[in-house]
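lol forgot to send this yesterday, sorry. struct tokens for the thing we talked abt
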């Protein structure tokens, strides 16, 4: 479940004009699941629900989905990669399916680590004792 979203009729949701990127969706998602494949299935479901709520056409939905996936690859490159990895990835055309296919194992590994990180953080927060409304 996403904490703040137009899907929950949240007026202050940050996904009013554009859907969350995968990383932002992970941060907003309350589910604890380190499986990147299942997370991507859930993310795609979120995108479909978001598109339906916004009444996007199939063509607009496809463009939105492709744009979001390219955006997450760029975000991983910039935020979660070493300098050496960034140098290599900047030579890849993320709009070219054959280029993406070659570099995909790298991104899958990064996504697995990211999903695992957020699931551990959520699990740790669930197990944190709360005393008098404050974390102890």
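and heres what i got for the seq, position by position
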């Amino acid at each position: 479940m996403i904490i703040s979203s137009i899907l929950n009729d949240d007026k202050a949701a940050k996904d009013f004009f554009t859907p969350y990127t995968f990383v932002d969706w992970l941060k907003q998602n309350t589910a604890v699941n380190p499986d990147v494949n299942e997370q991507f299935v859930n993310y795609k479901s979120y995108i479909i629900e978001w598109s339906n709520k916004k009444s996007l056409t199939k063509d607009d939905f496809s463009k939105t989905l492709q744009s979001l996936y390219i955006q997450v690859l760029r975000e991983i490159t910039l935020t979660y990669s070493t300098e050496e990895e960034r140098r290599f990835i900047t030579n890849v055309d993320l709009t070219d399916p054959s280029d993406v296919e070659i570099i995909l194992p790298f991104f899958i590994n990064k996504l697995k680590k990211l999903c695992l990180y957020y699931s551990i953080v959520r699990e740790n927060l669930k197990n944190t004792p709360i005393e008098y409304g404050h974390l102890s």
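The longest strand covers residues 130-131. anyway ping me if u want another try
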